[in-house]
Amino acid sequence: MARKSDREDYFSGRCILVNGPVIVGAGPSGLAVCACLRKQEVPFVILEKDDCIASLWKNRTYDRLKLHLPKQFCELPFIPFPHNLPQYPTKHQFIGYLESYARHFKIDPRFNESVSSAMYDETCGLWRVKTVRRNESGVEYICRWLVVASGENAEKIVPEFQGLDEFQGHVTHACDYKTGEVYRGKRVLVVGCGNSGMEICLDLCHHNATPFMVVRSPVHVLPREILGKSTFELAVTLSKWMPLWVVDKILLSAATLILGNTQKYGLKRPCLGPLQLKNSGGKTPVLDTGTLSRIKSGEIKIVPGINKFLHGDLVELVNGEVLEIDSVIFATGYTSNVPSWLKENELFSGDGFPNGWKGKAGLYAVGFARKGISGAALDAIKVAQDINKLWRNETKQKSHSIGVPCHQRFLIGTVGTDRSIEFGYISNHLDLEFTPVLLNLFFCQPDLGVSDYT
Ligand SMILES: Cc1cc2nc3c(=O)[nH]c(=O)nc-3n(C[C@H](O)[C@H](O)[C@H](O)COP(=O)(O)OP(=O)(O)OC[C@H]3O[C@@H](n4cnc5c(N)ncnc54)[C@H](O)[C@@H]3O)c2cc1C
C-alpha cells in the first residue's frame, strides 16, 4: 500500500483518471474482461506493453502451433469460433478470431504502455498505475478497480547451467523459435518435454534436423484423441460423473492401448494420474500430436538432464555422456511478471500467481487459474459482473453534492473516447468550475477531493 514518500511524485507526469477499471494486458484474458464490461456498459481502460493484442500468440509462438485444446474450450465469452474453422485452429486462425473479437467489442488498448508499478493508495481509496512507454515519459492512471490480466506466461524461464556462457552454439528459448528451417541438418538439444518441447522436436524432424530431448522428470503423454473424441473433452465429461482418480485410470489405460508403454522410450509417468497431477498444481499432460512416433522411431533421442556445457559445442549429461550439438532450445516454460510491478501481497503471493480471482480494494485477477483460455473466460465473466455491480452503486452515490476542497493544483482535462479524462496540472490553482465535474465523475467517495492526491 502507498506510503507518503510514494505519493510525493503524484502528478509528476501525465495523469489520467479512469472512470472504471484499468485492465493490464490485452491477451485473451484482458479482451474477455473488456468484452464483458462493454456488454454491461462499464467504461474501462486497457493497457498493453506490446504494440498489438495477443502478443504472446503473435510474437512468441512457433509457426506450426495449433490450439492444444479443441476450439470449444478456447472460446471467449459471447462469440463462438466460426463453424468453418477446424477443431484445432491454427495460431493464425486463433489470432484472427481474437482480432475480430476486439473489433466487435470496440476494444482499443493503449499499446506500448508497460505497467511498471501499481499500488493502492489507502488515503484516497484508489489505485495508482504507472506505465512506461518507449522514448516517452510515463503516464499515471488513477482508478478504483485494477484487473491483472498480464498472463501466466509473461516471462520466459531460462535455467542456469554451468558453462552455458562459453557454449559456442546457438542458444534460444521456445518463445523465439519460429520454425525448424534454420536448424536443417543441425544437432539440436531441446531442453524440456512439455507440449512446446515435444512439438518443437517434431518440427525439427520435419526440417531434417536431429533433435535430442532432455527429459529430467516424469511426464504424462496422452493421445490427443481417444476413439475419435478429444481426450480433453472426454476427461471433462467423465470428471463430471466420477472421481478424478477413476478418470485418470481410464485415460491411462486408453493411453497405453493407443501409445504403448511410454516408459520404454524414456518417458516415465508420474505416480499421480494426469488429472490429479494437474489439479494439484502440477504439470499439464502432453497431448501427443505425432512426436511419440518420432521418439519410437529414434528420430528424436531422449536424453537425461544436463550436467554442464563444455567448451566449444559440447554438453555433458548427468549420466556422464558427452554430446556434440549445434544449438540449444530451452522449452523450459514461462512465469508471471506480476511481482515486478504490483505492490500487493495478499491476492498475489511472491510467485506472481493469485490465490483467487478477487482481492481487496478493487483488485482482480483474470487468467491465472492454470485452466487455459476457458478458465480465463470464466474469470472474466465473474470479474466483470462484480465490477459492474460496484461501479453502478458507486456511480449512483456520486450524484451527491460534493464540497470543493482546497487545492494547490490546477487540473485541466479532456474527455477521451474511452470516457477517461486526461489531466495535466499547470498551476497552483483550483479550477472551481471543472473540479466538481471531475469529482462527480470519478471519485468514488463523495467527500474525497483532488487535494487528497497531491
Ligand atoms: C505455446 C503455447 C500454446 C498454448 N496453447 C493453448 C491452448 O491451446 N489452449 C489454451 O487454453 N491455452 C493455451 N496456452 C496458454 C495460453 O498462454 C493462454 O491460455 C492464453 O494466452 C492466456 O491469455 P492471457 O491473456 O491470460 O495471457 P497472455 O496471452 O500472456 O496475455 C497477457 C498480455 O499482457 C501483456 N502484459 C504483460 N505484462 C504487462 C505489463 N506489465 N503491462 C502491460 N501489459 C502487460 C502481455 O504483453 C500480453 O499481451 C498456450 C500457451 C503457449 C505458450
TrEMBL record:
It comes from the Eukaryota. It catalyses: indole-3-pyruvate + NADPH + O2 + H(+) = (indol-3-yl)acetate + CO2 + NADP(+) + H2O. Pathway: Plant hormone metabolism; auxin biosynthesis. Coiled coil: none annotated. GO terms for molecular function: flavin adenine dinucleotide binding; indole-3-pyruvate monooxygenase activity; N,N-dimethylaniline monooxygenase activity; NADP binding. One of its GO terms (biological process) is auxin biosynthetic process. Keywords: Auxin biosynthesis, FAD, Flavoprotein, Monooxygenase, NADP, Oxidoreductase. Its EC number is 1.-.-.-. Belongs to the FMO family. This is Flavin-containing monooxygenase. It comes from Dorcoceras hygrometricum.
